[in-house]
Design goal:
The structure is a single chain. This protein has 261 residues and is of the alpha/beta class. The chain has two domains: 55 residues, Vcp-like ATPase, Chain A, domain 2 (Roll), CATH 3.10.330.20; 188 residues, Vaccinia Virus protein VP39 (Rossmann fold), CATH 3.40.50.
Length: 261
């Protein structure tokens, strides 16, 4: 069956790509509103009804392309009050957590909600993400970011201290993004179904050592620890192909484990 092409509508998130400067801009499409930058002005009404990939020109004749944002874009363009999980790490973590539609997932350390957005997309409409943070202002900001991504109906957010018992049980996965994630390992074990995974990200070796120790002491096994690096490649017709001068180096140690019984 051929899929019907759906034009972009008011109320949707829109990603504008500046073809010349290679920059992107994310916003919600609204009636009688305008996008403004140093490259000129574009009426939201001119974008409404366009198909993804359409070419549009600003008031200064600068060319832009119109898209719906990918989850990558939604994660990277959150309003930040904290550090976020970057896409290069998020992919490995999502696989380590074995995320599927319909699952129940706990996240401790909502932060700005970037990784929450990915979790919510992967568990699907039938799944649920229970995300907790100790700070009310972080949660309020994260919920705004999640709402802009159109995933708020899949997320339950509330305040919680990491040492406390998790209010949700029999979940399929737990993600910990905390300065001291080991204090949440025992509550995580109690909340997880047998054999299900836990994952975390840590910035220092000392934290990593403490986390592995806690996992072993609290009946977790199959422990894996990795570090990922990301380097862009320049592909040019005349100058040839070579790596970009700068790269996304260390962002954290990634760790996963599974509940033992």
């Amino acid at each position: 069956m051929e899929k019907t092409l759906k034009p972009i509508e008011y109320g949707e998130a829109v990603l504008l790509w500046d073809e010349e400067e290679k920059k992107t801009y994310l916003f919600i499409l609204q009636k009688n509103a305008s996008f403004c930058s140093h490259r000129g002005k574009i009426s939201h009404d001119e974008i409404a009804g366009k198909l993804e990939g359409s070419l549009i020109f600003s008031s200064t004749k600068a060319p832009f392309r119109v898209f719906r944002p990918l989850v990558w874009d939604q994660m990277m363009k959150v309003e930040r009050k904290t550090q976020i999980v970057y896409p290069k790490d998020a992919g490995w973590l999502a696989l380590a957590l074995d995320l599927k539609p319909g699952m129940k997932v706990i996240e401790i350390g909502t932060g700005s909600g970037a990784f929450t957005i990915l979790l919510a997309q992967l568990v699907g409409k039938e799944g649920k993400v229970y995300t907790f943070d100790r700070r009310k202002d972080f949660l309020e900001n994260a919920l705004k970011n999640i709402k802009r991504a159109g995933l708020l109906d899949r997320v339950v957010a509330s305040q919680l201290e990491a040492r406390e018992d998790f209010p949700v049980k029999n979940v399929d996965a737990v993600f910990l993004d905390l300065p001291e994630p080991w204090i949440a390992v025992k509550p995580a074990w109690e909340a997880l179904l047998p054999g299900r995974p836990l994952a975390s990200i840590l910035p220092t070796c000392q934290q990593l050592q403490q986390m592995v120790k806690s996992l072993k002491e609290n009946k977790f096994g199959v422990i894996k620890v990795i570090e990922l690096l990301e380097r862009k490649i320049l592909v040019r017709e005349k100058e040839g192909v070579r790596p970009f001068e700068r790269m996304v180096g260390f962002t954290g140690y990634l760790i996963s484990a599974r509940k033992l019984i």
